Amino acid sequence: MVKTLKDLDIKNKRVIIRCDFNVPYKNGKIIDDTRIIESIDTIKYCIDNNCKIILLSHKGRIKEEKDLKENTLKPVAKRLTKLLHRTVRFSHVTRGEELENMVSKLKNKQVLLIENTRYEDLNGKKESSNDKKLAKYWSKFGDVFINDAFGTMHRSHASNVGIANNLPSCVGLLVEKELNKLEELKNPERPFVLILGGKKVSDKIPMIENLIDKVDYILLGGGMANTFLSAESFNLGKSLIDEESIDFCKKMLKKYADKIVLPVDLKVNNKIDNNGKIEIKDITDFDEDDIALDIGSKTVKIYEDILKTSKIVFWNGPLGIYEYSNFIQGTKEILNYLVDNDIKTILGGGDVVAAASILKLKDKVYHASTGGGATLEFLEGKTLEGLKAIK
Ligand code: ADP
Ligand code: MG
């Protein structure tokens, strides 16, 4: 097992916490602070242990000078100050004398957030390529390291893997929670149902291959379903189909015919838009111009019938183009069904969690994972880079 806060003595120490403050901004303002809220437990735990606390996080991608300003973590420091009811100090730089002074003046129970670690990417990708010197430099600020950034756990960066290689380390409370919930899918209660939607099959092949023997059913939606239907020779008009994955789908349908469940009807339009001639069509009735944008009502019923007896559900990828209110319907009905019937549901994937958030159902499911890529890699059966460094 990976080391957790119980395994590390942090009392009165200088702790570096790698958080995931990669939150969305609009016009320089935070529009969703879920990730900041999720980080609070670990920070409070360190305050209660009389630590000096240094926070690190990346935000966005930094490729050129102009990316700097729009990805500053300054608004995060402000939001943290509100949430923690104490001043969170902020260093505008990621290295240098000014930062070193702030670190050395820090008192017990005080919190300092350092500017976006990816500011170092402008300087030869030092953060993202896990530059050893940079990791050593940051490591000197702490006695112990806590990795609580599940969203980047699959990456090998200086601020997560690099620092873990230099200091006694463990995972934080958020990562511990993520791992405990996702572990349940390794030896799942049965029936275990996988709901798979989203855009492309090819991105998800390793996950499907890793889970197929454990699941009782896979319910398909979105572009994912289109590709499987196309592999079954249904004509889906102008719907999104992932041509390169057709052979994979054919093989899966042959081998796991009893597990894979496909839509029988789909909601279509002749353009990707909320307006137009929107109707529900059986999969046998598509015209040349039809584009499938959601699952239909007969399909919803069939899926609910299968979900009725399930003990645990993992769901990746929305069942329709949820960005449009007319095509979030299928996702909404299935999610409501799971919540209303208290079916243990784990959501994993940036978009399916975003859809749940729009529907105000995110806090009602058993677990909504904060990791997109990290969650997928975990379910592909890989050991995440950040965890390797801690073990
Ligand atoms: P997740 O982030 O949950 O892993 P993906 O990134 O695989 O999910 O897919 C999400 C995207 O899939 C969304 O942008 C959504 O609009 C798109 N999508 C869903 N259904 C369809 C469809 N029928 N046709 C095209 N795109 C779709
Ligand atoms: Mg996505």
Brief sketch in words of this structure:
It is built from 15 helices and 17 strands. The chain is an alpha/beta fold and 391 residues long.
The main sheet orders its strands as 5-6-4-1-7-8
Sheet of most strands: 6 strands, parallel
Number of strands: 17
Q: What portion of residues belong to β-strands?
A: 15-25%
Low-confidence stretches: none
Count, helices: 15
Q: How would you name the oligomeric state of the polypeptide chains in this document?
A: single chain
Q: Helix amount, in percent? A: 25-40%
Mean pLDDT value: 96
Structural class: alpha/beta
Distance between the termini: 8 Å
Report Rg. Answer: 23 Å
The kinds of small molecule bound in this structure are: adenosine-5'-diphosphate, magnesium ion
* Rough outline: elongated
What does this structure look like?
With about 400 residues, the chain is of the alpha/beta class. Helix content is about 35%, strand content about 15%. The chain has helices at about 35-50, 65-70, 75-85, 95-105, 130-140, 160-165, 175-185, 205-210, 220-230, 245-255, 295-305, 330-340, 350-360, 375-380, 385-390; strands at about 15-20, 25, 30, 50-55, 90, 110-115, 145, 170, 190-195, 215-220, 260, 265-270, 280, 290-295, 310-315, 345, 365-370. Strands 5-6-4-1-7-8 form a six-stranded parallel sheet, sandwiched between helices. Helix 1 crosses helix 3, helix 9 (about 220-230) packs across helix 10 (about 245-255) and helix 11 (about 295-305) runs parallel beside helix 12 (about 330-340). It is elongated, with a radius of gyration of 23 Å. About 45% of the residues are buried. The mean pLDDT is about 95. Adenosine-5'-diphosphate binds near residues 198, 199, 222 and 318.
